[in-house]
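Changelog excerpt

This revision adds worked examples to the README so contributors can see how folded entries look when concatenated. The first example is reproduced verbatim below.
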Amino acid sequence: MAWTITAAILLAANLPAGAYRISKAEFPEFAGAIACEWEGDDCPGAAEGFAMQGRLGAEIPEPSVPNPASEGKVLIGFPEGKPFSWARYAVDFPGPRMKWIVLNELSSGDRNHVFLTRWKSTGDSLELVKIHPRSLPLDLGETHVFAKTVLPDKSLLLILKGEGADAGVGLQDFRLFRLQAPDKIEELARVTNRSDTPVNAILERLNAGQEVEAVLDSSLSCQIVKGRKAPSGGPLIRFIKTRTRVVYTRNGPEETPAGGDTTVLDIWKRVKTGAR
């Protein structure tokens, strides 16, 4: 299991110029372009709000159509083919009138640049408050809200999950954030698992009538353990890495459990001690 702990991200609250408003009914079709001159994973242009915004396919061209998002801008919104729900992409914090919404990159590129955005919820509409300038890059797939829980000081633990699969590659990428009112973000931990099966080589051997050696696949899951607290008094987070031995045949894959690892994380202790 690969652990990558990042430094705290402390972002000051500021209102982007020309705040944008959209109805909640139209929001699943929303897309917006940010002008990014990258500084590592930071996009300073996000503080200016969206360079262009609207409904994808209406005010905003589809990513496959030449548009300003292909000229040094990042187009973000909701991935096509993924089921939209508020629970999948948004959390209310510190109350129901403020939503933190996860937007994934829609423009083509080698990586998916994911952004946390803040919106004021009023009646049946949303008004943009801020695009946080730190991108959360993901090599494969999309990122969504996985879980949330209140910490002992009433801040919010937000767990985002990035996941994807393509050509034998499988990825699970969990990021754990602490949200504090009104606009402070602290990234506490990142836990990632990547498995890579040589699909093309396996198919070549099967088509040639040759035997294929077993490969080891793996996947990572996360749980906020119910009914138990960590020694610090905060939530107990459990990560389980499961391994599977897979033999590919002409009749399909034959899978056998091959053990796994369990790791527990006392996230509130990290907050209190500042350990990363």
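The second example, added in the same revision:
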Amino acid sequence: MTMSQGSPRRRRLKLLAFSLIPVLVLLVLAQLLAYVEIKRTVETTADSATGLRYYSMRIGHWPWSHKSLTLINSLDLPDEEFVNVLPKGACLHVLFAGDSYTFGDATDRERRWTTLVAQMTARRLPDRCIRFFNISVRNSTIDTTIVRIHQVMPLIQPDVVILEQYQNDLTDLANPGSPAWVPAGNGHPDSHWGTRLGRIVPGYNVSLLRFLTYRSFAFMIRHDIKYDVLHTWSVLVGDSKRDFAGKLKGIYHDLYASLVQEMRQRGIGFAVLTFPSKMDILAKRAPEEAYFTELAQEFGVPALSLWSALDTHRGGMPFYVYDGHMNEFGNQVTALAIWDWLFASDVAPIPQLRQGKPAAAAGACREAGCVSPNGE
């Protein structure tokens, strides 16, 4: 009797053990996938043959994981060297300024929206001589952007400056060295309201849970499901941050006003582009965008919000699953929306861009080298 009772029990245990193997395998694979996708490596390298420097970001752990490359010039800006562009002749110089969304974080230089806009301009307006420059820097906002504009002004002599604005531009004013920064020990505020999901998902540092969380967020974006976490992501949401938000808004307002005034005094066209974050798309509202829109209206600045374009194409998932930046698809959607606004909308936001140059003069300009082969 003991033998006959023991055998079925052992068989059941073996059956249970074997049935758990696929589950364990799936869990291990999920862990590996989460680690591969979420790990990010940022570095700057130099080509020994050409001497050119490149910024790269790898999303993932393995050698075949996604890795972006962006050319960095001697000023540490994501563009070619600013040489042989003066005198401009018939060329029109357009300056893009902003943070990582314009820098092109995690996306190759050839596929970022700034490059795509330049290429579309060269292709669609072959009789125009328009050159685009990118002076964006990651983790920056308007205070340092103004410094960079002054730095490159004599090198580029821009006719148009286009400022990119993003959700964290206000809180970045509280980063070390910025206007709202308070040294540690003196009531230093938390400048990063972004939760990284850590405050709302228990055990978030577990790779599997992180993997499933990001995948579920991607599902919600694709299927237009609302999920609002802006109370911990945005400095403009919540009574507890009201005083700090007011301070940041005041600083940004004054810097914005000074930039607009300077551009007008110099006769430089000025406009702004406002990008929503992935969390804005999920929440179906964008508090920072509303503030930036009010600023543009107050100072009469042409402004384009990319909310509609990215939200309309949310089914294609315009953001990286494990990163807040736009992927190649998002950059394509953005480039088309910006180009149509600048060059094909009913009301010209920047009149200088609609004023044509004689074809002969534009051709002479290209022969002189004021437009690079890729249209930048």
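Reviewer comment on example two: Strands lie at 40-46, 53-59, 66-72, 92-97, 130-134, 160-165, 269-274, 303-305. The mean pLDDT is 84.
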